[in-house]
Amino acid sequence: MIDLLSQLVPAKLKHFGSGEVGHSISTHIFSFVSNDKTNRFVLFFKMSSDQPFFMYTVSFLSAIGGFLFGYDTGIVSGAMVLIRKQLDLDDVWQELIVSITIGMAWIFSSIAGFFTDRYGRRPVILLASAIFTAGSVVMAFAMEKWSLLIGRAIVGVGIGLASMVVPMYIAEVAPDELRGSLVMINNCFVTGGQFIASVIAGILSYFDHDLAWR
């Protein structure tokens, strides 16, 4: 009977999520209970005492991508007031610099599923973080409109990947009883990033306009 149950456990775990999640769950196998009259086999999953803390930590770190999503889409509204004067942008260029981030995010969010299926959730999240960093560096050192446009496009790629992968990853690693609250963390980080961006833009507007937007 024990051999039969041990063969059934992997099959029972397949519907719980991806390979990464299924592997983590499979570490909590089953319990064998016996008494004098009969033997009973109880299959259950045990959550360790530090499991909720681990889940919240993973969700918090993953949701930083959501924060960057909100920040990068929100900060441009305040920065553009200063950028337009310094780089002498006309209406067309201003619209391009603002909209190219959302356009690239739309394109890469539509193909993010292919990358996550092929390479896994965590590698794509790490890639999105690296892309965010690269785009921010390009924008910070942009001296003319073309380099600024390229930086905004790079950030849009990171936004597109993160907006699809982060909620998916959090939902897959979260247990049923915590899934709703953990996925909500990403949504809160998106709106929180937009709020922080507005506050920072307002504060920096009192500093040197040639450097504050960077």
TrEMBL record:
This is Major facilitator superfamily (MFS) profile domain-containing protein. Keywords: Membrane, Transmembrane, Transmembrane helix, Transport. The keyword Ligase does not apply. It is found in: Membrane. It is a multi-pass membrane protein. The chain crosses the membrane at residues 53-76, 96-115, 124-143, 149-170, 182-207. GO terms for molecular function: myo-inositol:proton symporter activity. It comes from Tetranychus urticae. Gene3D superfamilies: MFS general substrate transporter like domains. Residues 58-214 form the Major facilitator superfamily (MFS) profile domain.
